[in-house]
Specification:
Number of domains: 1
Order of helices and strands: HHHHHH
Distance between the termini: 52 Å
Helix content: over 70%
Number of helices: 6
Radius of gyration: 18 Å
Strand content: under 5%
Length: 135
């Protein structure tokens, strides 16, 4: 009986992992299309029109999936144990890390005269949000 339940949980969980990876990858594309920088309900225009917001806007299109992902993680933990489910937490932390990285340039973009350390921090956050790598 347990083996059957493990198999029933494993396939949708693995599918969710691959889907989460794809959502995170596609949300972090550096190119922001013009239609992505348009008015959005509940978002101030100066934020919605900023290309730095595009990754978050892309992620917000998947709120239902994120809810299912967290729920599936709980089901997985119930069958395989919390320790086994920690891998799924890593993907969730990555999603939150991207969210924080998106917020940094939006919240600090008007800061004039920023020192080089602050500029480096913002560039690092932008790199996290948009999959920009050096070299």
């Amino acid at each position: 009986m347990l083996g059957k339940r493990q198999a029933e949980i494993t396939e949708p969980t693995l599918t969710n992992v691959y889907e989460m990876e794809e959502i995170l990858r596609s949300a972090r594309e550096p190119l922001a299309l013009a239609q992505e920088m348009a008015k959005k309900d509940g978002v101030r225009d100066e934020i919605a029109n900023d290309s730095n917001y595009s990754p978050e806007a892309r992620l917000l299109e998947h709120l239902d999936f994120f809810g299912r992902f967290r729920s599936q993680k709980c089901a997985f933990a119930a069958i395989f144990g919390r320790r086994a489910a920690e891998q799924l937490d890593g993907l969730w932390r990555r999603r939150l890390e991207i969210n924080v990285a998106i917020d940094a340039p939006l919240l600090h973009k008007d800061r004039t005269g920023a020192n080089s350390e602050h500029r480096a921090f913002l560039q690092q956050q932008r790199s996290i949000a948009l999959r920009i790598t050096k070299g």
